[in-house]
Write a structure and sequence with these properties.
alpha/beta, Rossmann fold, 7 helices, 8 strands
């Protein structure tokens, strides 16, 4: 079994952003397979926040789609692996944006990834994700967010920052929020994909999130797999194909049902 373990990458990112969590990372097993996916379908473009700050997104899929999805990258940044995920949704008929929260930075080693992640300001990230969602919105189109690890936490943060436009949220082993008062902002249901061997987003943290969502009166669907953190990343060294396929089937069914 291969997979990527981002160690303690995602701990404490939830409601407080990226600052501080990177100090708890371990370097072992933080390796990225440099292989690139097949030719991409979309292209990179630039958007602006409400304050006029430019940022990048990878845009793909039919512009007249009745479903849209915002993808948020792992700690490596907006690389071709995440672009290929966006294309996967495009092939299913989604209009997909993969947002860049690193200002163009992409890491292939843990030290660079850590530096990029530590530099993320949550308020600025929220502004970028909100602007991307607003650009992605269209009459009659339903929207979802999805992210992995760092991006899993950011998927939840995006839905909390712009609940009025998000119909569903997907979190792959990302930092969680355990405050019902914060989670009350959510409008749509949440799907959580987790790993029982994950030492950062542990089963105890998942249970606390479940309790908080219940207290907030919000819909939550949780699926946990006998795998490790980042098991769904085929470009990583701890990829678990069986768990990844099962999680993808659950994700697709959830989004088909909710959007």
């Amino acid at each position: 079994m291969k997979s990527v373990l981002a160690g303690l990458l995602c701990l404490l990112l939830g409601s407080s952003g990226a600052a501080g969590a990177a100090d708890m990372l371990r370097d072992e097993d933080h390796e990225l397979n440099p292989r690139s996916p097949d030719q991409l379908l979309g292209g990179d473009t630039t958007l602006k926040t409400a304050d006029g700050v430019e940022f990048g997104v990878y845009a793909t899929g039919p512009e007249d789609a009745d479903r849209g999805i915002l993808l948020i990258h792992e700690w490596w940044g907006l690389n071709d692996h995440i672009r290929a995920w966006a294309d996967r949704f495009a092939r299913l008929g989604y209009r997909a944006y993969a947002v860049d929260l690193y200002g163009g930075g992409v890491a292939t080693d843990p030290d660079t990834a850590r530096s990029l992640m530590k530099a993320v300001n949550q308020q600025e990230a929220n502004a970028k994700m909100t602007a991307a969602l607003e650009s992605l919105a269209a009459p009659g189109r339903k929207l979802a967010t999805i992210g992995w690890c760092f991006g899993g936490g950011q998927s939840l943060q995006a839905s909390l920052a712009a609940p009025e436009v998000v119909d569903a949220t997907v979190i792959y082993y990302g930092p969680l929020v355990a405050d019902p008062d914060v989670l009350e902002k959510l409008r749509g249901p949440v799907l959580g994909i987790f790993a029982t061997q994950d030492q950062s987003i542990s089963p105890d943290k998942v249970a606390a999130f479940e309790q908080a969502m219940q207290a907030a009166g919000k819909r939550l669907e949780v699926h946990s797999y006998d795998a490790n953190h980042a098991f769904a990343n085929p470009s990583g060294q701890r990829y678990d194909g069986e768990a990844a396929v099962a999680a993808w089937e659950v994700t697709r069914a959830f989004l088909d049902r909710e959007l």
